[in-house]
Amino acid sequence: MAATDHRAIDNDGFNKFLEKNLDLSHQGDNGFGGLFQRLVEVPRPFFKTQMQYLYKLHLRESNHDVQKNLQPSALHLLHMYNNVPKSVFGLPMIPSTSFFAYTWVTFMLLVDIFYTAFWVPINVAFCSVDYGALSDGCSQVELIGGCVYFINMMLAFQFTIVLACGMRKVATSNGRVTAVTYMWHSVFWLDLLSVSPFIYLVVILASGTPPTSWVTYLSLLRLLRMLRVISLTQLLYKDASSGVLNKIMVDWFGGVQGAFIALLTYVACVIVNLEACILLMVAFWNGTADSWLASITWLDAVDAPYAEQWYMAIFMTIISNTGTGSWGIHAYNLNEMIVFNILMVTGMVMYGVLVAVVLIYVTTAQPETKVQHQLNMKIKRVHQFIRSHGLPNTLANQLEAYYRNDWVHKQEKAAAGREELLQSDLPEDVRGHIALSSLLPVISFVPAFDTLSIEDKKFVCARMSALDLDEGYELCEEGEQPECLWLLEEGEVEVCDMHWHTHRTVQGPAILGDAILIMEQVPSCMERPWGYRTLTPCRLWRLGLREITSCLKVCPEIRVAYLDHVEKQLHEFLSGVDSQEGLDVWYCELVARITSVLKECDLEIQREALQLLKQANWKDMTLQVLLDAFLEVSAIYYAGGSVSKVRRHEEVRSMMAHSLPLTMAKVSSECSPEEAATESEIDQCPNSLSLHSTSVPVSAELVRAREDLP
């Protein structure tokens, strides 16, 4: 039991740390929004490892709080400086939300959009033969650009980052976590490839190596910077197709369609410029007098200025891509012929990709981007309506909250259905292996499933489907007909009654909706005893009613283990033996419902209930009869919302005092039929009364409330 306490204390502290530091916003941060936030998507194991490391640092810093307050004033400033978050270089971290960070990210965006996308290929085309000469203007520009890339790479270790894992985000200024995350992410390798030509140029300039053929070949490393343009294009596509930056980007082009066309135009310009520069590079390698430039008869392109040569290369690229003729321009050698063939094939691929992308975008756009765009449009219309009618801004905030929560949750339900359909396509054995790998830590510690064998657990897991839900999502309401149960893997859920009064909160791992397991034997379980609502983003696994039926047929010990658990928990509660701790560690909705009413009864009634529980047994259905009687009383107790709490307590004590003798007689008749009391004898008993009898001295409000129960 001590181990369990230690684990609970550690989890409680860690969960409080997460609750304090996690940003549980469900708004989309893809595209440029994530770029400016320096948001990095990481897998769950990596996220958990870094959060545990931050939690350890938090505990270590908490132990020095007293020492910090007792320091002399002369050392206070030095201590404050030591507590400033520092990078791996020992310099203070720069918040990613600062003005300098936003300015630098904007500057690098402009560098990638214009310099990297267009000037780097031009530099490779005209400055490859004499690469490395400091007197050359191209080398000077290349040196300046390389310095910018190097500074950007160093600043990446200085800016704070935001770790994102699913719907969870946490901003961290820890230098070690920032460095590990940055070096783990693909952006680091992209920056490293961008800096490598600069390092190569510095080595050439420092060593005084004259331009040679191998220097020229290695100078092509500059083209690796085009990978930054590919990454930039992905961000542009996310924002153009989803409309995340509605005010900044989409409205500039007249909507999503205009932004998408602008993106395709930009990509086409980048590709055409790159192909033209490759043509020029091949021409300068072989000598312009013996290149395709010499075949241009209407212009002296061999000795023309660089701007005219670049224009002719663009012209040649376009006619090669579109296949509209050669205009008398032809290749002079094998290298140029290969390049021309590549241009023709590229043109065909571009046409095919253009047609395919347009068709996909128009007909089968991704549901996530469509939902995000529709959400932005709805919120935009809400604000326009509020402004045009002069309504208060508080109403706009309420409507926006509705769309961002309830409306998005409906779309998430549809997405969860698609995920469940995808899992159903897999073979049963594969589904079991996949689900068991994630569910084993959960299913091994929740009631009803902890005693199953590995094969039986795999059988149950194969029929479960994963659900990722945001905060504020209502799983069910009290009184609903149960259709499933849930295994809570991560997150926190609120347990409520029919009036949405919070009874308690439950953290994963836990089981929710477990009363459905004995629904066939306990009629009162055919209605949900509690309502559930997520307090934080949760990861759940759903087991539907049909799947539960098949699992109970194959593994009947599930119901037996559940009844044993309920009986044990009720026995501990009524006996007063370590009950509260057990109820806090392992949540069971049936036990929570019954104990919430039993604790309002007198000690004498609790003793009678304990004696009755000792006589009951699940084998002869007497335990099920007793549980049904308890749930009937609890339903009447929670239905009396308009009655005062004191009055309801009195009524519950009265009903329990009158109904326990009858229930005990029923249990005794089930245990030993030969000694069972007859109905007439029970009716003659002055202290015995059925739960359905109206002669119990209860208030009229409670009777009407019970009749109104679904």
Detailed description of the structure:
The chain has 710 residues and is of the alpha+beta class. Helices cover 62% and strands 8% of the residues. The protein contains 28 helices and 12 strands. It has a 4-stranded mixed β-sheet. It has a 4-stranded antiparallel β-sheet with strand order 5-12-7-10. α6 crosses α11 (226-242), α18 (428-443) crosses α19 (454-461) and α24 (603-615) packs parallel to α26. The longest helix is centred in the middle third of the chain and has 32 residues, at 393-424. The model is unreliable at 1-9, 24-29, 65-78, 417-422, 577-584 and 671-710 (pLDDT under 50).
Topology, element by element:
Blueprint lengths: L1 H20 E2 L8 H6 L1 E3 L2 H19 L2 H5 L6 H8 L15 H28 L10 H20 L4 E5 L2 E5 L2 H10 L1 H22 L5 H6 L7 H17 L3 H5 L5 H31 L19 H17 L11 H30 L3 H23 L3 H32 L3 H16 L10 H8 L3 E5 L4 E3 L7 E7 L1 E5 L5 E6 L2 E3 L18 E4 L3 E7 H10 L2 H19 L3 H7 L3 H10 L4 H13 L6 H18 L5 H27 L7 H6 L15 H8 L3
Parallel strand pairs: 2-3
Antiparallel strand pairs: 1-4, 3-4, 5-12, 6-11, 7-10, 7-12, 8-9, 8-11
Which strand order spans the largest sheet, edge to edge or round the barrel?
A: 1-4-3-2
The CA-CA distance between the termini, in Å, is 41 Å
Q: Roughly what percent helix? A: 55-70%
Radius of gyration: 36 Å
Organism: Chlamydomonas eustigma
GO molecular function: voltage-gated potassium channel activity
Protein name: Cyclic nucleotide-binding domain-containing protein
Domain Cyclic nucleotide-binding: 448-569
